[in-house]
Amino acid sequence: MDIGTTKMIAKKEGGIGWMIFNQPEKRNAVSFEMWVAIPKIIKSFENDPEVRGIVLTGAGDKSFVSGADISEFEKKRSSPEDVKIYNAAGDEAAAVIQACTKPTIAMIRGICIGGGLGMALNTDIRIATEDSIFAVPAARLGLGYRYGAMKRLVDVVGPSYAKEIFFTARKFNAQEALQMGLVNRVVPTSDLETYVKSYTDHIAENAPLTMQTAKMAVDAIVTDESQRNRRAVDEMVTTCFASEDYIEGRRAFMEKRKPQFKGR
Known about the structure:
The chain is globular. By secondary structure, the protein is of the alpha/beta class. Helices cover 49% and strands 16% of the residues. It has two domains: 8-203, Alpha-Beta Complex (2-enoyl-CoA Hydratase, Chain A, domain 1), CATH 3.90.226; 207-254. The relative contact order is 0.11. A six-stranded mixed β-sheet has the order 1-2-3-5-7-10, sandwiched between helices. Strands 4-6-8-9 form a four-stranded mixed β-sheet. Helix 1 (32-46) packs parallel to helix 3 (80-99) and helix 6 crosses helix 7 (159-168). The longest helix has 20 residues, at 80-99.
């Protein structure tokens, strides 16, 4: 896969696609070329029938993603047109992750700040180490957060916690993040990869159409009613019942064996 940069890594292992932010010397801060590469990677995994789920993580042991690469801002965001181009790349990256029909997991180790937290919030499940740190320091930088990014945070943690995160601009530890709902699980640092591997093993074994339908239904439920596409959800439910996987699931249950789902 040609993703146009060495600062992102894309690989497949056991039915799972791995997207790795690979700039550890800058704590995996996301550069413009990395923003541009994200949709290419996610779409490739989306279109690969062998990929059942996607994990996002950072290279090294210090950081998931520490935010945008601010050292680029003088060149990449120095004019209104440059800002528009840069923001469009970030918006597309976020939209593609959110729109992915396959389960996505953020495997968080260490720093998860600013755009890094935004990246994690775009995934379905967030699993963090007990030494992870979370923050949105926008109020210390004079930055304005766009509506889409703010809405995602509010959808996950609610309005009161979202305001606390922004008003204080302070760092929150993993237990505070768990309490707020920023993350689903907190595990010992040494157990992170094993724990996530267990999750991805379950995902890779389960029926892809059922997971896709569940994700579509949950996303529809939290979407404004005027934009909610219940018909699409109903059609996916019908597709599940008409699928070969449904037949395989029933037979495997009766025969007391593990089902072999094919996503069709």
